[in-house]
Amino acid sequence: MSKFSKKKDGDIPAVSTASLPDIVFMLLFFFMTVTVMKDTSVKVQNDLPKASEIKKLEKKDRVITIYVGAPTQEYQKVFGSEAKIQLNDKFSSPSEVGPYILQERAKKSEDLQNVLTTSLKVDREANMGIISDIKEELRKVNALKVNYTTYEGIAFDNLR
Amino acid sequence: MPRRGAPPEVNAGSMADIAFLLLIFFLVTTTIETDAGLDRMLPPLEPPTEAPPIIKEKNIFTVNINKNGQLLVEDELADIKSLKEKAMAFLDNGGAAKGTEEYCNYCMGKKDIASSDNPSKAIISLKNDRETQYGVYITVQNEIVAAYNELRNRESQRLYKRNFTDMEAEYLNPETSDEAKAVLKERVKKIQELFPQKFSEAETSSGN
Questions:
Q1: Which of A11, A123, A138, B47 is the most buried (most CB within 10 A)?
Q2: HSE toward the beta carbon, residue B175, CA cutoff 13 A
Q3: In the record, which residues are listed under signal peptide (chain A) (predicted)?
Q4: What pLDDT does A109 receive?
């Protein structure tokens, strides 16, 4: 018998998988708690521009979101390919922005009503005309704090 | 009926499978929302009752964007990449003579008499066309904010050995303690006073 032959002590014991469910459950609970279910489906193309000097929108409950962009493929037949405003779940005209903001503001609790931010999620292909109309409407209802929501990145990439 | 021994052990072997299934479901449905962007304040609609203040032409830095995304900075065609530099030179100019009330003792610019007197007087005016692309507009906004931030960071480094953007982020973070916030608030305010964001957006023009 060679000196270097391995000793055979029988098979290697199997790794216990008893704690696997615990680990998986831990991950599961993590994702369950961080998941935010989307309450609206976005019906417009929403390729946000990039910017580097961004600030985070800290509190979700203080934000009103307005989507702007060309309708997605399935809606283009009905609504055309011009950029549209989406409020909640439907396409709207600029004149409906004011009442929408007032209605959303009324839903919030009183101490939050003065600190609301309007988040504009605008497709980078959209024209400024529609944005100007929205800004005009926002000024009419005194919703002056806006956030042009963007991705983080190099701003010059928008020019392509 | 008498019990015959302990009830049989439930097989928990498939528990992991069930948990994995749920885990994958939540992994797929999770959307990390984009929740950052450029903060701006719109001007209030009511026109002020008093007469508009008289602003010297040299204290205004005009930026025009046309529908093709070209820039006219101070009546000269300019590349968007040079905008930040130009805006910084304008803001940091400090053209008022030494000894006058508007003299800027922290400015490091050229002290050109034909440019802005003092950062607190300097106004950036942005005008865009109705057909300007939103992406271009955001880039211009970003560059102007970057110009302000860089100048503020410089002053903040000088006074507090810290970047202004860090201090502001910490101040706005809800997890920061109240004592720390009180200190930060004062510092942020001080820096903001040194380089106030005076940024006016004209009504968009429809024709070009």
A1: A138
A2: 2
A3: none
A4: 87
Mean pLDDT of chain B: 82
Q: Which of A16-24's residues contact partners 24+ apart within 8 Å by CB, and which partners? A: A17/B16, A20/B16, A21/B12, A21/B15, A21/B16, A21/B19, A24/B16, A24/B19, A24/B20, A24/B23
Q: Find, in chain A, the residue whose alpha carbon is nearest to that of B128.
A: A128
Whether residue B137 lies inside any domain: the answer is: yes
Q: A9 to chain B, minimum CA–CA distance in Å?
A: 28
From B121's Cα to the closest Cα of chain A, the distance in A is 23
Structural domain that includes position B190 = 57-201
Q: Do B134 and A131 touch (CB under 8 A)?
A: yes
What is the chain A residue with the closest CA to B133?
Answer: A127
- Within a domain: B63: yes
Task: Report residue A26 as tokens.
Answer: 């831990």
Average pLDDT over residues B79-99: 84
Q: Are B71 and B79 in contact (CB under 8 A)?
A: yes
Q: Residue B43 half-sphere exposure, CB side, CA atoms within 13 Å?
A: 13
How far does Cα B146 stand from its chain's mean position?
A: 7
Residue B99 inside a domain? The answer is yes
pTM of the model: 0.77
- B24 contact residues in A (CB cutoff 8 A): none
Q: Which of A130, A129, A133, A131 minimizes the C-alpha distance to A148?
A: A131
Is residue B52 situated within a structural domain?
Answer: no
Taking a C-beta distance cutoff of 8 angstroms, is the pair B65, B57 a contact? no
On chain B, the residues whose CB falls within 8 A of the CB of A56 are 35-36, 169, 172
Total domains present in chain B: 1
The reply to whether residue B19 touches residue A21, judged by beta carbons under 8 angstroms, is: yes
Closest listed residue to residue A85, CA positions, set A73, A93, A76, A77: A93
Taking CB atoms and an 8 Å limit, are B42 and A35 in contact across chains?
Answer: no
Of the candidates A70, A51, A55, which has an alpha carbon nearest to the alpha carbon of residue A127? A70
User: Which residue of B30, B39, B142 is in closest CB contact with A35?
Assistant: B30
Q: Which domains does chain A have, with CATH numbers?
A: 50-155 (3.30.420.270)
ipTM: 0.74
User: What would the pLDDT profile of B102-127 be if each residue is shown by its tens digit?
Assistant: 788 888 888 887 888 888 888 888 88
